[in-house]
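User: Can you predict the 3D structure for this chain?
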Amino acid sequence: MKSDVVKKGVARSPHRSLLKALGLTEREIQAPFIGVVGSFNELVPGHVHLKTIIDSVKSGIRMGGGVPFEFSTIAVCDGL
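Assistant: Here is the predicted structure, written as structure tokens:
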């Protein structure tokens, strides 16, 4: 799997230590990593609901045996 690039082998020991510092277990480190991008924020009214959707997506990833990593992108509002 693609996420093995950052977690397999001796050269990736520092990477695994950072993953463990995040609280990941050995089982989670062996699972596929899946990025979840969202534009939720508390400033753009039309994006406030996105946190609920993002949390549901992350829950589905966990149920499927993966490990989600959430990160943000910009949010644009024509009204602000």
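Residues 17 and 23 are 10 Å apart (CA to CA). The mean pLDDT is 93.
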